[in-house]
Amino acid sequence: MKTVIVTGGIGSGKSAVCAMLRERGIPVYDSDSMTKSLYDRYPLLVAELESALGQGLKMPDGTLDRKKLAGVIFSDSSAREKVEAVVYPFVLKDFKRWRSRQGKAPFVVLESAIILSKPVFDGIADAVVLVDAPIGLRIERTILRDGCPAEAAMKRIKAQEEAPREKVTAVIMNDSSQERLRDAVEAVFFDKNAYICKLVNTQN
Question: Which CATH superfamily is domain 1-27+107-204 in?
């Protein structure tokens, strides 16, 4: 089963691209939402995080205190590295298990903004599609989506690691209408002359 990573920074529109792929019947693993669900599905993961950080992270009902974890991550870079060292192997294992159940799909998509900069995921992708947009447009979209001021939107965008361009197979520029974006998705993923379409057709 071939794996295509779809990546892009805040406000780029990678989620919109993935929604279009789902409409075409392509299974998409949203790493952000799936990671959040791992904390609920695997109590061992929370226990390992507590051990790595040396502090409790559970609410009175035994579930993860997500705000506390976020506070630790954003205030301490070394703590963030410890969290990633625990969480990302869980995510990778969960993705592989999920991928194994998508037997009839032509390929699967792993959606993530940051995965290319994480060594644990090296070698997982057969192709990488970067969704991009001009910085001004990304700021506008972030403001509209999150209701935050422009300064906060810019800060979040700048804080996010950019995808290493040498790992990118194709770029979708999302700077126009939804119709143009849909055409770009069609060209990159489904056109018979596109690299990804050729890749899928040679998997057997």
Answer: P-loop containing nucleotide triphosphate hydrolases (3.40.50.300)
